[in-house]
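Fresh eyes needed here. Kindly weigh in on this sequence plus structure tokens:
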Amino acid sequence: MRQYEITFIIDPVLPGDEMKAAAKAYEKLIGDEGCTIVNIDDVGLQQLAYPINKKNSGIYKCIEFQTDAGDVIPKIELAMRRDERIMRFLTVKLDKYAIKYNEDSRNGLIGTNKKASTKKEPEEVKTFVRKDDLTLIEGVGPKASKLMRVSGITSYTALSAKTPNELKDILTKGGPAFAGIEPSSWPDQAQLAADGKWTELNKLKASLVNGIVVVDAEEE
């Protein structure tokens, strides 16, 4: 049984009912194709790593599912390409490590303090822990973000602690699809993100060309 994860972004300017209809349409399509849905993650409104159709945010949704054969994937992707409500989508085939990571994350085994969890909080207090979004780092797309997390790099701080050579080794082990990615600026970007210095981060990202900082000759 193969397991996939498809993440898609819905246009945020759509009416609420149409947003829900778009999301439900693909849940139904996946189910109608004989797939078993493992998990549905309604991430909600998120900032985009770069503008799409002049929009800086989108409604993220992620569906994890199992199927006996992969021939259903082209059908789903074709439907999304034709759907004007869908801004972007990405399908990832999950290996055993990614599947375990997702299961552990859903079961609260990642990013939680076991000692603290034994203390009962007042019912009126609800705590939400939001993962660091590694795709906000220039050059880290959804697939590279998944690879980083599977490799144990789940936060801006963890990413900033890695050297470019260490990151290059991880990308190399990920296969040919990651061969052309240049991670030399990732630690610096991640440190700015970890410190909450978003203005400085955006300036750094604007100076990058193919992942490398380019200094204007007039500034030298």
